[in-house]
């Protein structure tokens, strides 16, 4: 039986500092506010996947974020990383920095071999129905991704607990230099090229701007309907939590046979409340993001 455990934790680090206390206690942190939550345990019965825990730390109070004229919350304003932290960490890893008003990951050239100074990052609030907008560019041959509905998942092996990769629980909007990274030629029908639902649905039309040029990305999630856009064109549409979604997973690298824990998490992505984190990927290459904003559609 899988155990989903929501843990209220104190996170004290460079990215943010919070105070633990009662339910919905607000902790002031510079320009953003965090909400603490009581510990909750939900049992999910599925004997086909290994046992795992989903960890939920204090969440950013959206009321403390700036809102632009279009009604979007500003997740990154080009000057501060308040509300951001490493996946499975309490601080933003040092490989992520602010450069010329952009959120930059400085690659190591090691692909997915993440170092302690790197790793994926998330914004510390779980979103349910939303429209996310961002701009991105990569270096020549660069690879990254944008995750949504992500969970922080721990599993245990040989008595030791570790965080599983973020992509086991989250659909991925692919960020890639299509012309120079070999992943663009893998998968099926271009389903690993930029703006695709990684390894499942290709972005069509494929309208990417070349490496070191800015692209505009968009992800909308509303009651299970998901749309990816690239440079103001809708290029992917699919529907979560449906038989078709399960079938897509079974035909991908995340199938129940190949990767049972990924299949279990993705088939039920967002957990029982159908909500999760926005995340950006460390894939070992230089990547830049800017103008990151989100509109809640609830």
List the helices and strands and how they pair.
Elements: E1 2-6, E2 26-29, E3 32-35, E4 40-44, E5 52-55, E6 59-61, E7 73-76, E8 84-86, E9 96-99, E10 102-105, E11 121-127, E12 130-138, E13 143-150, E14 152-157, E15 160-163, E16 172-176, E17 215-222, E18 225-230, E19 233-239, H1 243-250, H2 260-267, E20 276-280, E21 287-296
Antiparallel strand pairs: 1-4, 2-3, 3-6, 5-14, 7-21, 8-11, 9-10, 10-21, 11-20, 12-17, 12-21, 13-16, 13-20, 14-15, 17-18, 18-19
Commentary on this structure:
It is a single chain. By secondary structure, this protein is mainly beta. It has a single domain (67-296), classed as Sandwich (Jelly Rolls). Helices cover 5% and strands 39% of the residues. The chain is built from two helices and 21 strands. The protein has helices spanning 243-250, 260-267; strands at residues 2-6, 26-29, 32-35, 40-44, 52-55, 59-61, 73-76, 84-86, 96-99, 102-105, 121-127, 130-138, 143-150, 152-157, 160-163, 172-176, 215-222, 225-230, 233-239, 276-280, 287-296. The strands form five sheets. Strands 7, 9, 10, 12, 17, 18, 19 and 21 form an eight-stranded antiparallel β-sheet that branches. Strands 8-11-20-13-16 form a five-stranded antiparallel β-sheet, with no helix packed on it. It has a three-stranded antiparallel β-sheet with strand order 2-3-6, with no helix packed on it. A hairpin with a 2-residue loop joins strand 18 and strand 19 (233-239). The longest helix has 8 residues, at 243-250. The relative contact order is 0.20.
